[in-house]
Amino acid sequence: MKNISIALAFSALTVFAAPLASNSDNLLGASIAHADSMSVTTGVIKGVGGNYIGEGNVKIVKDASGKHTLELSEFTSTAGPDLKVFLVEGSGLKNGNDVIAGKHVNLGVLQSTSGAQSYALPDGANPADFGSVAIFCEKYTVLFSSADLK
Question: What pLDDT band is residue 21 in, cutting at 50, 70 and 90?
Answer without folding.
Answer: very low
